[in-house]
Design goal:
Distance between the termini: 28 Å
Helix content: under 10%
Shape: globular
Strand content: over 45%
Structural class: mainly beta
Radius of gyration: 13 Å
Oligomer: single chain
Order of helices and strands: EEEEEE
Number of strands: 6
Amino acid sequence: MLSTDKLRDKVVINIADGKSLGYVSDIEVNLENGVIEGIVIHAEKRMFSIFGDRQQIIVVKWEKVRTVGEDVILVELDTY
């Protein structure tokens, strides 16, 4: 069984291109079914931004998660 506190603060890597997406900050849970639907990642924006927040939020659906390791979560995304 996987507890939610073990998902937080893990780095997320996209295996499609090998890039780090950021760190897990939260999860999406379907309370009716009691299943995880996705992970929420706070990521640094790739391009320099003069105005606005320098972070973006990425939500990865649980079916795109391939492996949950001790320090890293591997996902497979074509684009984000």
